[in-house]
């Protein structure tokens, strides 16, 4: 059974890292890979204070790397207009509380992610039975408790707009988490996909280390609704993106990206969905998570 969709190395959208450690994908967008996950900077170099936006906030311990890259790219002391979250899993919000406080920045997310970002609920347990590598096996050790952003947490507007970013839209792409979103700019068909799909086998330590160029569904061990995940990939494939940066793996562009994404959508049940798993037969329900309050 196929478990990935190979993509030509020519489809890679990332060039060498710049002086700030980021990889430019266009004149106003770049990403920084820190350990196992990517964060995205939207804004032209030198944009200055409140002239840019951060998408996702990496793993715990990534704060210094993110702040250093932001200062080099936008100017010393330049704070973002906002932090946008694709979802609230630990590897995407590891530094969000500290960064939001240090930068006095609002944090936008979908309303269905709010319980995991306001301290009130923990995610359903990861599923180590999906197989595919060491990360899947040790996934029960990954933190599921929520962060608490307090008054800085904002809901993305219901009209699909992204307040700090004219010309961008957010798209509800659930499955990997209930309130997962992707960000889309139609002008240049640029997609920030989060974990709706990824370009590495995130279950495998080896695959993450070598960053082979291939398309996968969302990371299996934290995906809680596979039918919703399929619908989300189908919706993103219909956009026909020119460039896509995902939460894990290398960004891709061009015809190979679109053809691979079309195939992923068409063959999702064979390529992406595990044969067995806690959430394969029945999606997680809200009660599968746990109420949580900080001491």
UniProtKB/TrEMBL annotation:
Gene3D superfamilies in alphabetical order: Ribonuclease Z/Hydroxyacylglutathione hydrolase-like (3.60.15.10)
Organism: Methylobacterium isbiliense
InterPro entries found in the cross-reference section: Metallo-B-lactamas, NDM-1-like, RibonucZ/Hydroxyglut_hydro
Span list, region Disordered: 1-22
Domain Metallo-beta-lactamase: 36-248
Name used for this protein in its record: Metallo-hydrolase YflN
Gene: yflN
UniProt cross-references to CDD domains, sorted A to Z: yflN-like_MBL-fold
PANTHER family reported for this sequence: METALLO-BETA-LACTAMASE DOMAIN-CONTAINING, METALLO-BETA-LACTAMASE DOMAIN-CONTAINING PROTEIN
A Pfam family recorded for this sequence: Lactamase_B
